[in-house]
Amino acid sequence: MKVMMQSSSNKTLVGFTRRISLWLGVSVLLGGVAAVLLVLQLTVFAQIVADLAFRHHALEAEVPALGWLVILLVGRALLQWGADIVAAQGSLRLISKLRNELLQHLFHVGPVGMANYTTGETVTVLDAGLEGLEPYFAQYIPRAAMMVVLPFMILATVLHLDGWSFLILACTGPLIPVFMALVGYRAQAIMDRQWTQLLLLGSSFLDALQGMTSLRLFGRAKDAVAAVAGMADEYRCTTMSVMKVAFLTSAVLEFFASLSIALVAVVFGARLLEGKADFQSAFLVLLLAPEYFMPLRAFSASYHARQNATAAMAGISKLFALPAGVVDHTQQPMIEPLLSVNCENISAKYEENRPVLSRVNCTFNRGTVSLITGESGAGKTTLVRLLLGLLSPVAGRIVAKDVHGQIHTHWQSCIGWVPQRPCLIHGTVAENLRLANPQADVECLRNVARQADALSFIEALPQGFDTPIGERGVCLSGGQVQRLALARVLLRDPQVLILDEPTAHLDPETEQRVAAAIARVALDRIVIVIAHRGAIINHARQVLRVHKGQVFSGPHMLEHAA
Ligand SMILES: Nc1ncnc2c1ncn2[C@@H]1O[C@H](COP(=O)(O)OP(=O)(O)OP(=O)(O)O)[C@@H](O)[C@H]1O
């Protein structure tokens, strides 16, 4: 519990900032030294001007001072460059780590936990959301620190030079952060709205792209385009509001800064005329005054980075907060062959008071094709999700026994799964097959393709195993995709093979062959198939019918299945 609380408290802007505190510390340190050099540089410059203009020194006499001025100038530029680079490096590393962590976390959350998130929303968080944090770490944090360091350094110098100027700067400086906090309060609401609109725009755009065929066939393509355009326009308007606030903030900042510098100039100028102040001090104070406001201006310019990051962070935290429900399939594979998988009194539900499965008992044996059947919405996929470890049972347990009678609770890394719509990547046939086993040689690929009855169609493709199949296998038929997915899963040599409607898209002849192939691979495996009809039924030695939250088994269920 304590670990969980700690890990969730780390998933905040403050928590993330701590993780790169060393980088940010070095950046602020370099920036701080650059600030010291700036004060020294202006002091030397004021002295050179006073020497040349009022003390009538020859230019040659000022050469050493000019040399120092150049050294200070170059040193400051290098230090500032270093400070920026270090902050950017730390920030980019953190963003890249966070992206990996979030992706890994989403893999552990699994499709059931992600059911309420659209792909577009998730992609926007992973992309624009995480990118939105970069300026916060690279600019906002160092500038916030410099807003404290440089003005205090300048105030200390000015106090040493002139009490009145110190008073003016000390009184006007704090007005700026106060004003910005007031403006920021309103701006945050606009930023949040902008972020929500970006999420909506991302998911609507992706939905429109994915549903392009259906939208065209329903004659709704124009409406979809208009809807996306409308959202884009709303997003534009909100972005303009954000910019308005930003311009307004800078305008007020400039006003305050100019007013206060003018006040310093007038007060010091008057005393200079009266002979109560010396030129060098007056000139130095006037040089320092704009630099006093510079970090405040830079901070204000990056203030929207904080607001943007706060808005993006809401989406990022939500994803990080999703409970990891999926079994870790990267665990060590089992060595002993499995004999059976037993569901013992398992119950499952997605929502409170809506149980999908109640106290289900069933066994799946090695060397047997077990058929799961039942009406739509009965809970077949839910049972398979429990077996796959994508959903945790609310009661009961699933255990596997090996051939020596030993019970295993962590056995899910031995499962192979072929869903109804297998996921194929944009690549060649061989690349898609090797997702299951990157080391597999061509002979292995041919072997599994033969077992899945896919070899003949693959060899008939223009470049055989090297033929690109397009995103999601668009260049293949539904039946070919199914067989390719079966071949791919066999490449992992799974001890338990689960297939969802594997013969749904096949012609009767191919269906017979694929069903026979499944029966063959079941000889030394536990094979579980969701199917309602077709040739696979003839190969099933066990039929389980899911009905009203219960699972009924027995040979008579074949009649229901058929
Ligand atoms: N992620 C989810 N969140 C909430 N309810 C869900 C979720 N997935 C499924 N359900 C509900 O659980 C019940 C069982 O669904 P399940 O997908 O297991 O049925 P099924 O037998 O596989 O149906 P089909 O044959 O149509 O695929 C259904 O009432 C469904 O609405």
From TrEMBL:
<keyword id="KW-0067">ATP-binding</keyword>
<dbReference type="InterPro" id="IPR011527">
    <property type="entry name" value="ABC1_TM_dom"/>
</dbReference>
<keyword id="KW-1133">Transmembrane helix</keyword>
<dbReference type="GO" id="GO:0016887">
    <property type="term" value="F:ATP hydrolysis activity"/>
</dbReference>
<dbReference type="Pfam" id="PF00664">
    <property type="entry name" value="ABC_membrane"/>
</dbReference>
<protein>
    <submittedName>
        <fullName>Thiol reductant ABC exporter subunit CydD</fullName>
    </submittedName>
</protein>
<dbReference type="InterPro" id="IPR039421">
    <property type="entry name" value="Type_1_exporter"/>
</dbReference>
<dbReference type="InterPro" id="IPR003439">
    <property type="entry name" value="ABC_transporter-like_ATP-bd"/>
</dbReference>
<dbReference type="InterPro" id="IPR036640">
    <property type="entry name" value="ABC1_TM_sf"/>
</dbReference>
<keyword id="KW-0812">Transmembrane</keyword>
<feature type="transmembrane region" description="Helical">
    <location>
        <begin position="245"/>
        <end position="273"/>
    </location>
</feature>
<feature type="transmembrane region" description="Helical">
    <location>
        <begin position="164"/>
        <end position="185"/>
    </location>
</feature>
<dbReference type="Pfam" id="PF00005">
    <property type="entry name" value="ABC_tran"/>
</dbReference>
<feature type="transmembrane region" description="Helical">
    <location>
        <begin position="140"/>
        <end position="158"/>
    </location>
</feature>
<dbReference type="GO" id="GO:0005886">
    <property type="term" value="C:plasma membrane"/>
</dbReference>
<dbReference type="InterPro" id="IPR014216">
    <property type="entry name" value="ABC_transptr_CydD"/>
</dbReference>
<feature type="domain" description="ABC transmembrane type-1">
    <location>
        <begin position="28"/>
        <end position="308"/>
    </location>
</feature>
<keyword id="KW-0472">Membrane</keyword>
<feature type="transmembrane region" description="Helical">
    <location>
        <begin position="65"/>
        <end position="87"/>
    </location>
</feature>
<feature type="domain" description="ABC transporter">
    <location>
        <begin position="341"/>
        <end position="560"/>
    </location>
</feature>
<dbReference type="GO" id="GO:0140359">
    <property type="term" value="F:ABC-type transporter activity"/>
</dbReference>
<dbReference type="GO" id="GO:0042883">
    <property type="term" value="P:cysteine transport"/>
</dbReference>
<dbReference type="InterPro" id="IPR003593">
    <property type="entry name" value="AAA+_ATPase"/>
</dbReference>
<dbReference type="InterPro" id="IPR027417">
    <property type="entry name" value="P-loop_NTPase"/>
</dbReference>
<keyword id="KW-0547">Nucleotide-binding</keyword>
<feature type="transmembrane region" description="Helical">
    <location>
        <begin position="20"/>
        <end position="45"/>
    </location>
</feature>
<dbReference type="GO" id="GO:0005524">
    <property type="term" value="F:ATP binding"/>
</dbReference>
